[in-house]
Amino acid sequence: MAKSDGADNLDSWLNKATDPSNVEDRWDCIQGFYLLVNQQTDGPQVATRLLGHKIQSPQEKEALQALTVSLHNALNDTL
Hints:
Layout: H1 5-17, H2 27-39, H3 43-55, H4 60-78
Helix pairs in contact: 1-2, 1-3, 2-3, 3-4
């Protein structure tokens, strides 16, 4: 099954935000990811699936960065 353009774009933003070669957190990519999540009807469902996959990554740095992306949204929702 082919991915929709929205999933490709969300995947692209998340890949940039969780790239293990990142020296520091890519807040620009995290913000771009959530802007797109909020614009798409199925954004939250797709984002949950993508983040769940990244959090389970065997690459520790990628998994930790995915947690950072998740926490960014959780903290912003409570402020």
